[in-house]
Each structure stands twice: as structure tokens, then as C-alpha cells.
Amino acid sequence: MTRSVSILGATGSIGRSTMALMEAAEPGAFRIEALVANRDVATLATQARRFRARFAAVADPDAWPALKEALGGSGIELAAGPEAVVEAASRPADWTMAAIVGAAGLRSTLAALARGGTLALANKESLVCAADLVLETARRAGATLLPVDSEHNAVFQCLAGCDGAGIEKVVLTASGGPFRDWPLERMARVTPEQALKHPTWSMGAKISIDSATMMNKGLEVIEAARLFTLPAGQIEVLVHPQSAVHGMVQYADGSILAQLGSPDMRTPIAHALAWPRRMTAEIPRLDLAALAKLEFFAPDPVRFPALRLAREALLAGGGAPTILNAANEVAVALFLERRIGFLDIAAVVEETLARLPAADPDGLEGILALDAAARAEAARRAETRAALA
Ligand code: NAD
Ligand code: MG
Prior knowledge:
Blueprint: E1 3-8, H1 13-24, E2 30-37, H2 41-50, E3 55-58, H3 64-71, E4 77-80, H4 82-90, E5 95-98, H5 106-114, E6 118-121, H6 124-129, H7 131-141, E7 144-147, H8 150-158, E8 167-174, H9 184-187, H10 192-196, H11 205-213, H12 215-228, E9 235-239, E10 245-251, E11 256-260, H13 266-274, H14 288-291, H15 305-316, H16 320-336, H17 344-355, H18 363-388
Parallel strand pairs: 1-2, 1-5, 2-3, 3-4, 5-6, 6-7, 8-9
Antiparallel strand pairs: 8-10, 10-11
């Protein structure tokens, strides 16, 4: 039976890995309904033609002429702008990959969930900034939400057959990023090029910086708390440089179940794509004998304050996670533009959280307003820090 699939964020790291898996699957297993990108028309057009997509959209209205030029006359329906992204997500499909980066993916994540079906969630920021709304939308529509983030996908697999009782804790592993062993003085001078070079995973720019600051793990603690309905105290983070164990669940009887695999997102994506079955993914297998050892350390709270900030935001609740996420997106973008230093990223987030009231935002409009206010405040905090540097 052919499954219809839509990919939001098709041209990115997760989007391309998803399409590579579909290409290697049995012919006729999948067909593409809709593909979305921000403005990479060349990649989107190649993907749309190759998979005979029915609909292709770009979020950036300026990319519309290029899209028309590339795919006009192909029979593929085309559209541009933020509404086109929501339209792509709203078209009926059995399975949707939410792989847009940042809170920019929120409206399409909600639109896809609202029509039921299965949503594979890579876009953790939409869950962090609007968890109640995302989960309530899924519940109301009877949609299935499958975590793609490798740690959450691992925990999801380790929870198979568990009715929610008897869970002592969940462990999310972190590679520790490129600066795992760097002294703080050296971290202050980190360049975007150094921060983008992740030791074990190949990913998009934003999540690579988040991994280097460990804000990625902070966002993931919030993601795990909301996906698995666990208090912050039952979610542990361990630095695990080999990136072989992705997540674990410790049960009341002392058992610890772990999921292992190569550090390759095609495994969790394949899990979500075939769920509840399994499909073949032609990726290098984990060679445990070659690996020889698996190490685990507690993260350093002094050099990686982002993890603490995320835990505090989770405990504060209300709009705090929305503010944390928005301020972080702004700070990461400014760091990539070399406008602020590496250590300024967490500082900007902390200052923004301290300055904005974190009252619970009301519905989507309230969340979007708080997100915008946090972005403006973070930009001001960053400017002040840049002026002082
Ligand atoms: P990426 O930067 O490689 O790709 C992002 C995709 O989103 C691109 O297709 C881009 O065109 C699209 N996009 C960007 N802004 C958009 C907008 N405003 N509207 C519509 N589309 C837009 O990012 P990625 O590494 O593939 O990450 C995507 C998401 O998956 C992120 O939320 C990230 O945290 C999460 N994730 C990624 C990995 C990974 O290994 N790359 C692992 C776990 C989770
Ligand atoms: Mg992850």
C-alpha cells in the first residue's frame, strides 16, 4: 500500500535524509504529496521532479519567480509565502515530516497535526515554544506524534510495551559538542567555523551551534518532559562522546533499556517512517568491538549554562520556554553573523528571560506575540553586549 508523505523542510539535513530513505525503499512504498523549503529552489525543484510531488512551496516570497521558472509547466502545483507552507501542511497525507528549523515551523506543525495522520517531529523548537498547543492539537485530531530527535526516538523505542508506570528516569545522551574539553577562556574566542564542526553528527547550522552550547540538550530536556509527561527531575543528561547510546529508560525494577546505533539520523527517521514496522536503512552499522568503550560523564554546568537555563525555563513553565527558544534563535543567528561571541549566546538568553514576564501565553496568537517580544528583547541584549565587547 502506497503511503502519501509530505516533507516540511525538505531541502535541509533532515529533509534530505528522509528523501534518501524513501528513494531506497521498495518502489511504490511512498509517494510525495507536498514539499516545502525556505528559499533553496534548486534543491526543491530537483526533489519535486524526481519524486513527482503534487505540491511544492517556498516560504520566502522572494523565491517565487525562481520557483515558477524552475517548475512552471511541470504539472506540480506551486505556491510561495508563509500561507503556502501552511497549505502544504494542510493537504491530506498519511505521514508528514516536520523538519523546518526553529519556531518558524510552528504553524505548519499545527496544521499537519490538525488533520490527523502521523507527524514525525524533528522540529523540536515548535514543541518547546508551544507544547500545550501542539499536544492538544494532536490529541483533538487523534494524530500520532512520533519523535525523530535521536534521543527522544531512542526513549520512545525503550518505552515500547510500557504503560507509563514504573519509569524511574529517562536519560538523554549528548556528544558534548566540539568544545567538550575546552577551558572557558578558549570558548570565549570560538568562531562560527569551529562551532559548526560537530565531532559526531552532521546537521544543519542552527542545531550544530545549539549542540556546541548544549542548548540543544536543554531544548531536548523540555521536549522530553512534554512528550513523555515527565517532571524535570526525572530527565537526566549524560555526556557520551561516542554517540552510540542515544537514549535510555531506567525502570523501577532496576532495568535500564538503551537504544544504540550509529550517529546517523537516517535510523530514527527510518523508525518513524516505518513505524510500527521496521524498514531497511543502508547505513554503516555500529561496530561495538571497534568502538571498544562507551563513556558517560555528567555535563559541566559552568561551561555550559544553557542546560541550566532550559531546566529553569521548564520549571518556571508558562511562557518561559517560548522566551528561551526565541532568544536562543536570535542569539545563534547573531553569533553566526559574528555580531556576538560564543559565550554571549547563553548570556543573551539568560538576560532576556530575566527581563520578560513569563506569564502563560494565550493560544497561538499569544505565543507568537511572546515569541516576537522575546526576539526584540534578545536583539537589544545582544546589541548591548556587542557594544561592550
Ligand atoms: P537545516 O537548516 O538543514 O534545514 C532546515 C529546513 O527548513 C530547510 O529545508 C529550509 O529550507 C527550511 N526552512 C528554514 N526556514 C524556513 C521557514 N521560515 N519556513 C519554511 N521552511 C524553512 O536544519 P536541520 O538540521 O535539517 O534541522 C531541522 C529541524 O530538525 C530542526 O528543528 C532541528 O533541531 C531538528 N533536528 C535536526 C537534526 C539533524 O541531525 N540535522 C537532529 C535532530 C533534530
Ligand atoms: Mg537530538
